[in-house]
């Protein structure tokens, strides 16, 4: 009798969820249909999946205030630049920025992504190099250190970072560390793991401490040192990102921005810190000193998440693809695009652009991996070339177009990054940076295997079944 009552309750709740999806949530129609099928074809499973991954209506209420505050905070700063760039007589510091003027204006208008033009950009593809540079920057900090990461593991590297931060806090440097509750908990972290830092006077912020919710996580990876240097990319903090985890060698991409671009990372950190902790950091000149002019690379910091009206990172990707004349090189661990991204890549390839996508040869999430293969296979007949990276796990999230412009950041090429998680990417417009990313891509080709149309068609029935099932569930969110 109790079992029958429980089943009846679940069925009633499923009907309520279905009504909510149809009448109250403004979902993509494909995602809405997928949720309805799961709720009615797999009632008990669908019920629990919706609790974990669904509830967009709740999301809209949770983050509407954050969106309003972010837009108010940034509006006055960026409107003047938009007026300048709308004038065709404006001259950028690089010819690449001039060529991609439309992309710059798009990101400025749909994300208030202020363009800074006097930056130096350094690229890191190995964890040892990236964290070596981060530790050096921490040691040199004089006023403040602001870190924001999805994962801060309680392991050798994580403890070393916390210890380095604590030492600076004891020396009088302001230290703030923001981490995602679920990401860091999954990595073994907890408030106790940061006691050395807080005892030394440092501050921590725990983003969205609702462990039962898989969606709406802070997936950003940002570090800002003294307001003049910043890091952004795919590396989290933990031994795994040094190649010491179960997936072995770790191949990722991050960049260090020296110059005014670091101030835009600072803006992003301020918004997230204030929302999470309520401290209400203000735009004090001590946090935004004159960074000088260490380089000439134009950079925009673009943010996406449940609090943004549109999908600015995805739309930036699409605009770059549509602007390509020669080549589009993409590296991503997860490739589950929607129709707009798929169409952009297909049209580029059919137009004669050399479109190449590189994914890992091994899955850290099998379900996502098989879905990724299904979407890759769909593009092969259009002339897109795809590769599996065979020398460890590929975690980089990059695109470079014509060797002149592109993006490096935390956003994967999937629905979760485009709609459900908080992400941050740096878009650049500089042939020197683009050439370096092309060189890295070509080096990776030497340890990769091409997924040819013939090879893809020869996959087994079991693989085809895995792809079909994984693809069916991929729109859920």
UniProtKB/TrEMBL annotation:
<dbReference type="GO" id="GO:0030572">
    <property type="term" value="F:phosphatidyltransferase activity"/>
</dbReference>
<dbReference type="InterPro" id="IPR001736">
    <property type="entry name" value="PLipase_D/transphosphatidylase"/>
</dbReference>
<protein>
    <submittedName>
        <fullName>Cardiolipin synthase</fullName>
    </submittedName>
</protein>
<dbReference type="InterPro" id="IPR030874">
    <property type="entry name" value="Cardiolipin_synth_Firmi"/>
</dbReference>
<keyword id="KW-0812">Transmembrane</keyword>
<dbReference type="GO" id="GO:0032049">
    <property type="term" value="P:cardiolipin biosynthetic process"/>
</dbReference>
<feature type="transmembrane region" description="Helical">
    <location>
        <begin position="31"/>
        <end position="53"/>
    </location>
</feature>
<keyword id="KW-0677">Repeat</keyword>
<keyword id="KW-0443">Lipid metabolism</keyword>
<keyword id="KW-1208">Phospholipid metabolism</keyword>
<keyword id="KW-1003">Cell membrane</keyword>
<dbReference type="InterPro" id="IPR027379">
    <property type="entry name" value="CLS_N"/>
</dbReference>
<feature type="domain" description="PLD phosphodiesterase">
    <location>
        <begin position="390"/>
        <end position="417"/>
    </location>
</feature>
<dbReference type="Pfam" id="PF13091">
    <property type="entry name" value="PLDc_2"/>
</dbReference>
<keyword id="KW-0472">Membrane</keyword>
<keyword id="KW-1133">Transmembrane helix</keyword>
<dbReference type="Pfam" id="PF13396">
    <property type="entry name" value="PLDc_N"/>
</dbReference>
<keyword id="KW-0594">Phospholipid biosynthesis</keyword>
<dbReference type="InterPro" id="IPR025202">
    <property type="entry name" value="PLD-like_dom"/>
</dbReference>
<feature type="transmembrane region" description="Helical">
    <location>
        <begin position="6"/>
        <end position="24"/>
    </location>
</feature>
<dbReference type="GO" id="GO:0005886">
    <property type="term" value="C:plasma membrane"/>
</dbReference>
<dbReference type="InterPro" id="IPR022924">
    <property type="entry name" value="Cardiolipin_synthase"/>
</dbReference>
<feature type="domain" description="PLD phosphodiesterase">
    <location>
        <begin position="214"/>
        <end position="241"/>
    </location>
</feature>
<keyword id="KW-0808">Transferase</keyword>
<keyword id="KW-0444">Lipid biosynthesis</keyword>
